[in-house]
Specification:
With about 130 residues, this protein is an alpha+beta fold. Helices cover about 35% and strands about 30% of the residues. The protein has a 5-stranded antiparallel beta sheet with strand order 1-2-3-5-4. Helix 2 (about 40-55) packs antiparallel against helix 3. The longest helix has 19 residues, at about 40-55. The N and C termini lie far apart (about 35 Å).
Length: about 130
């Protein structure tokens, strides 16, 4: 992994919904560090929760949930992923996907090499002011 591809913060947790709160809290802390507004922070927390729900439903038993955070000037990109032998992209008409894409500026899915990943990013409203 090159320095440009390396996450600024990366967490690896059991692929269990009980740990999603750790990722939501980490997201909030990092967004606050980037001077996101309180509304932006809450939107990011919810988007990460939705992304986790989508990937966890496809996780192989006993796999890990990994989360990579890339910090930019007024921008936070979050990738959540699990190992999954049977992953298919989410239904883009589903409620969870609609919520995720409404909250985040960008969202994308990757299914490759037994890995299911959702990446979302959001720019702080303060950057647009």
């Amino acid at each position: 992994m090159t320095g440009a591809d390396r996450a600024d913060v990366e967490l690896r947790l059991p692929a269990d919904s009980a740990y999603v709160s750790v990722l939501r809290t980490t997201t909030a802390g990092l967004a606050a560090r980037l001077d996101f507004t309180l509304d932006d922070i809450e939107d990011l927390r919810m988007a990460v929760g939705e992304a986790c729900a989508l990937v966890l439903s496809r996780a192989d038993h006993g796999s890990d949930l990994t989360c990579a955070f890339h910090l930019g000037t007024g921008r936070l990109t979050v990738s959540v992923a699990v190992e999954s032998g049977t992953a298919t992209p989410p239904d883009q008409d589903s409620f969870a996907w609609q919520v995720l894409t409404t909250l985040a500026d960008d969202a994308a899915v990757s299914v490759a090499d037994g890995r299911f990943e959702i990446t979302l990013s959001m720019r702080s409203q303060l950057q647009d002011a």
